[in-house]
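Pasting as-is:
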Amino acid sequence: MDILMNIREAKKEDFDAIWLIFSEIVKVGETYAYNRDTTKEQAFELWMDTPRKTFVFEENGNILATYFIKTNQAGPGSHVCNCGYMVSSSARGKGLATAMCNHSQKIAKELEYKAMQFNFVASSNEGAVRLWSRLGFETVGRLIKAFNNPKLGYVDALVMYKWF
């Protein structure tokens, strides 16, 4: 079965499962610039309320991954979107991030965005940097020591961009 068949738009009642993934990743503090003690209510606003759309990857009734898509900037920058992706630790290495990024680009074009930008990719998140590069994103900016990784200390944050 095509992995994209398992991606669907999230519903409010999916958030308990999304929260398990979100809290697992954010508590580690190595990939997202969210407070490590982000509450469930704050996470709901960040992942469900603020974005234009939120999606989940579901397999056999279990939500294993999620992503959102939102407008990156208002006004003259509103043709560029931003996405965030999270995969449960139990589902990593199965191609879900690749599938979600490909799906998000399709959705972005349907929503009439012209480009996608990742604003703050920790350079220490080597898997994500490698994947986004492989999928055609260019590193267009480097913010020196902008991300405070709890294990590595201050590392660079990258701005990655793809014009459709």
